[in-house]
């Protein structure tokens, strides 16, 4: 039962692609700047035509599966395409959003990955047709009577050109479709210990008035109008709980499941405050920090939609978009600033008139991520620069409860609002798992391909652990004839946004992504999330599967679980509120797909080769451009224009800092058994380092240990702690007594008698003996005496 939801599809505010409605927003300008994004390649037009041809004929696998009623592929270049004046199929080269490209070879159009895949597919198709014709000719020679039959077949093969490709790359074997997967309910093993009560360390307002409506919340008319325009009928539980507390100006630490409307829960009270108490001068009063650029764009878009009937101004400052435009927008003092930490610090250091001392409200969306080690230094810097008298609000679906983790934002009497526990998945999510046996790890690609071809053909997000994996899956699935895109950190910002847009506009059916797309993204209509491998932590899992089953809708996640990932699966089953399912694919289907993938390996290689060639070309062109730019910069510098931007932390610095921190902890851990044990435990709990970082850390660790050891050996030792020097191997023969000097004897003799004598000073006989000796040498006994005491 849905208790809340939108008023209906296609209503106002449906545009969540980040297209702003009002001017003055940096995103609008910068996306506009990206307009030049490469021309639309001819290959794409051909592809669209082929697809239309296939649908018209009612043939083709996809057409059949969709009941022949599938709409033709959306016209490329619609929506954003018109605004940006670019063919969406063409990915913009890196840096396009940040600087105008010089007019020279770099403007040479690059082909997209999809075009390369299509090229390889076409080539393969020609080869196969030729092979088929050759085979037919052989048969013809053998049997003259079948001549007419052969002609028919050739005719057919010419006409059904497209069908050939489909059957080769997709599925010629009908059993693959007819044989269904088995789905069983997974038994839940309840923890005997029982659930640990959450530590209650500040005021708790997790209980909310279920009958509260937006009208009861004392929100201004412009906000109520915007809420209606967005199609929100009832507030969601987190909105019911948070908005009244937020309006009181209290600090909040909130947790609610994915897709339950946390963005509106923190933006609405803030907008109300800004409308109620208008600014005297143009200053930034609200700062919203988010971990990823795409999320920044989305939060900015939601904020603009909610503020559309008020005079509140907003600004977006995230990486990958034009710096100069953002600087200009910041100088105008927007009321609300939405930013990623890195770009914000960049502006704070390089834009003299911009500061955070006027910030009245600080919001951390995905707060647990913002407070983890990755952003630690940047967050310290930002919080240092913010006003002390501010309201702070923290939101996440996996909100931490550890006081020490929250300490850095110095919350003042914060109110804890946990509508869900921090391991709860979205309420209408159906979770499925596919077991990968230890010796069948190589089946993952085949299983995912089978799922996407047979069961979940569209509106799917496929999460992989690495960028390389994501890229390979894009190629592989593309070669199978599926409409795929990829989203990860190896792409330029323009390419990332383009992939997202194509997925939202249903130009592609499957988006292969890394964890960069796991948090916060609200893409309407995602039906299925597939995990190629389980993520590192349950938190990551909750966010990944949270890309579906949003806003009261149903969704499904299918995760492949290897032997090593079973522990996480057990934890998920334990905390699940609805039964978790186990899906089993028929073995012969998996085998069929394995075979298909093996046959496609050559084509994958061909696509990779095309990519490499193109990359090399682009690199040399980029070098030429760089040299050109340097020449120009030289001229500008001499004209006094070349001002360098200063950076808070370079990537290298951040890496070094991370390493230094780990080493510091290790150093501490060396000092005691207890600390060492704790350190080891903490290390296990922490998010894993990359293999390179781990090996570097291990090297540094051993170096450090050696240094400590050397230092310890160099340290001056106490006489009594000195180890006895090992006597050299004594020569054979009678033992000779070692001659000990008086000096040695006196200094090393620690017997009670000798010490007493030392304290009492030299005896009369000694003094006499030494005095005589001194006088003989012509010295003064008193001043030169070895017994002289201080
Ligand atoms: N009161 C409401 N009624 C109907 N739909 C709503 C309401 N509030 C928010 N939504 C919609 O719910 C969807 C999810 O909202 P939002 O992105 O804020 O979720 P979230 O809790 O921040 O998710 P995540 O944890 O993944 O970041 C959005 O499409 C939003 O428009």
From TrEMBL:
**What protein does this entry describe?**
Probable ATP-dependent RNA helicase DDX27
Q: Where is the composition biased (Basic and acidic residues)?
A: 113-159
Q: How does it assemble?
A: Associates with PeBoW complex, composed of BOP1, PES1 and WDR12. Interacts directly with BOP1 and PES1.
Query: What does the record list as coiled-coil region(s)?
Result: 610-637
User: Which GO cellular component does the record give, naming just one?
Assistant: chromosome
Q: Where is the Helicase C-terminal domain?
A: 447-597
Write one Pfam family the protein is assigned to.
Answer: Helicase_C
């Amino acid at each position: 039962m849905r208790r809340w939801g939108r008023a209906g599809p296609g209503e106002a505010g449906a545009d969540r692609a980040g297209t702003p409605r009002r001017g003055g927003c940096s995103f609008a300008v910068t996306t506009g700047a990206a307009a030049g994004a490469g021309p639309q390649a001819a290959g794409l037009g051909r592809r669209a035509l082929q697809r239309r041809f296939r649908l018209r004929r009612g043939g083709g696998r996809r057409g059949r599966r969709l009941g022949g009623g599938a709409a033709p592929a959306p016209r490329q270049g619609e929506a954003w395409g018109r605004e940006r004046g670019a063919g969406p199929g063409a990915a913009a080269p890196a840096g396009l959003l940040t600087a105008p490209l010089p007019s020279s070879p770099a403007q040479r159009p690059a082909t997209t990955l999809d075009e390369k895949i299509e090229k390889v597919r076409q080539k393969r198709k020609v080869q196969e047709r030729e092979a088929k014709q050759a085979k037919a000719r052989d048969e013809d020679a053998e049997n003259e009577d079948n001549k007419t039959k052969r002609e028919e077949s050739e005719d057919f093969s010419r006409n059904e050109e497209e069908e050939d490709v489909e059957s080769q790359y997709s599925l010629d074997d009908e059993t693959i479709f007819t044989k269904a997967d088995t789905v069983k309910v997974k038994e839940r093993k309840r923890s005997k210990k029982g659930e640990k009560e959450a530590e209650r360390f500040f005021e708790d307002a997790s209980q909310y008035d279920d009958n509260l409506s937006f009208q009861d919340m004392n929100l201004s008319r412009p906000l109520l109008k915007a809420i209606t325009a967005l199609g929100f009928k009832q507030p969601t539980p987190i909105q019911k709980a948070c908005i009244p507390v937020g309006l009181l100006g209290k600090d909040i630490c909130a947790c609610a499941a994915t897709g339950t409307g946390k963005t509106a829960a923190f933006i609405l009270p803030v907008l109300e405050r800004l409308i109620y108490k208008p600014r005297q001068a143009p200053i930034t009063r609200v700062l919203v920090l988010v971990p990823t650029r795409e999320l920044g764009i989305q939060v900015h878009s939601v904020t603009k939609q909610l503020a559309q009937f008020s005079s509140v101004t907003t600004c977006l400052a995230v990486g990958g978009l034009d710096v100069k435009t953002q600087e200009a927008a910041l100088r105008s003092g927007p009321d609300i600033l939405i930013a990623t930490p890195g770009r914000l610090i960049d502006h704070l250091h390089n834009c003299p008139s911009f500061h955070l001392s006027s910030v009245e409200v600080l919001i951390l969306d995905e707060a647990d991520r913002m407070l983890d080690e990755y952003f630690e230094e940047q967050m310290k810097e930002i919080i240092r620069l913010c006003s002390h008298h501010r309201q702070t609000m923290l939101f996440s679906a996996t909100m931490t409860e550890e006081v020490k983790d929250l300490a850095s934002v110095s919350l003042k009497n914060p109110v804890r609002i946990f509508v869900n526990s921090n391991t709860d998945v979205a309420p209408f999510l159906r979770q499925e798992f596919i077991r990968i046996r230890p010796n069948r790890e190589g089946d993952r690609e085949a299983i995912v391909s089978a799922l996407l071809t047979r069961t979940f053909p569209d509106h799917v997000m496929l999460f992989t652990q690495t960028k390389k994996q994501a890229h390979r899956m894009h190629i592989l699935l593309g070669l199978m004839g599926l409409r795929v895109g990829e989203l990860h950190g190896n792409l330029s910002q323009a390419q990332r946004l383009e992939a997202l847009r194509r997925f939202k506009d249903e130009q592609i059916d499957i988006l292969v992504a890394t964890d960069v797309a796991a948090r916060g993204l609200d893409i309407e209509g995602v039906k299925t999330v597939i995990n190629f491998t389980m993520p590192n932590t349950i938190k990551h899992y909750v966010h990944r599967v949270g890309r579906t089953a949003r806003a009261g809708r149903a969704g499904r996640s299918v995760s492949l679980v290897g032997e090593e990932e079973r522990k996480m699966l057990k934890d998920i089953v334990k905390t699940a509120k609805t039964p978790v399912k186990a899906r089993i694919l028929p073995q012969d289907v998996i085998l069929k797909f394995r075979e298909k993938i093996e046959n496609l390996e050559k084509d994958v290689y061909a696509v990779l080769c095309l990519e490499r060639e193109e990359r090399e070309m682009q690199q040399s062109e980029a070098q030429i451009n760089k040299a050109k730019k340097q020449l120009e910069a030289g001229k500008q510098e001499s004209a006094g224009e070349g001002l360098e931007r200063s950076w808070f932390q370079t990537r290298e610095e951040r890496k070094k800092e991370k390493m230094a921190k780990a080493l510091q902890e290790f150093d501490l851990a060396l000092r005691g058994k207890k600390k060492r044990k704790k350190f080891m435990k903490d290390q296990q709990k922490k998010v894993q380092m990359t293999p390179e970082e781990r090996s570097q850390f291990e090297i540094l660790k051993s170096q450090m240990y050696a240094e400590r050891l050397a230092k310890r050996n160099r340290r001056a030792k106490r006489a009594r702690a000195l180890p006895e020097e090992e006597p050299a191997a004594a020569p054979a023969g009678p033992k000779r007594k070692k001659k000990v000097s008086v000096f040695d004897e006196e200094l090393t003799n620690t017997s009670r008698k000798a010490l007493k004598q030392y304290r009492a000073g030299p005896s009369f006989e000694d003094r006499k003996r030494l005095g005589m000796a001194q006088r003989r040498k012509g010295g003064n006994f008193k001043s030169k005496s070895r017994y002289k005491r201080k």
